[in-house]
């Protein structure tokens, strides 16, 4: 059996993904430390969340290029649809935009678990699950912070 390419970079990928959580933590926890910057931190949080979400959606497109055992069209279409979610959120108030991204992260994880579970190594699936739920928890905290202002 041919080794999966991700396995050669497990440490790098794992460390990078954990470091990538730092801006989520800053946006979610920062308003408690610096309440006067809450709006700015929330907007920075959403910008970073949009960037990461779009990156993950784009990764589905890239995976579609290499999948041999099934038709890649559904992954290409899913990648496009997922990439449009942050664009739709751009036109919504900040609390709804945050909620939309939260739901988007869950939908993206569900898509990967449903259709790509045999593509990813087990360690990566577990890592994505853990990182996604931490990111979702940060979104929930940002929503809670924003609701305190209403």
Helical amount among residues, as a percent range? over 70%
Most strands sheet: none
Helices and strands: which structural class? mainly alpha
The sequence of SSEs as H and E is HHHHHH
Cα shape? globular
According to DSSP, the number of beta strands is: 0
Tell me, rounded to a whole number, the average pLDDT: 91
Task: Give the DSSP E fraction (strand runs of 2 or more residues).
Answer: under 5%
Q: Give the low-pLDDT segments.
A: none
Number of helices: 6
How many domains? Answer: 1
Distance between the termini: 57 Å
Radius of gyration: 16 Å
InterPro entries: DUF3429
Protein name: DUF3429 domain-containing protein
Pfam families: DUF3429
Organism: Candidatus Endobugula sertula (Bugula neritina bacterial symbiont)
Q: How would you explain this protein's 3D organization?
A:
This protein has helices at 10-19, 22-33, 38-66, 73-90, 94-115, 122-149. With 150 residues, it is an all-alpha fold. The protein has one domain. It is globular. It starts with 9 loop residues before the first helix and ends with a helix. It comes from Candidatus Endobugula sertula. Pfam families: DUF3429. Keywords: Membrane, Transmembrane, Transmembrane helix. This is DUF3429 domain-containing protein.
Show the helix and strand layout.
Layout: H1 10-19, H2 22-33, H3 38-66, H4 73-90, H5 94-115, H6 122-149
Helix pairs in contact: 1-6, 2-3, 2-6, 3-4, 3-5, 4-5, 5-6
Short description:
The chain has 150 residues and is mostly helical.
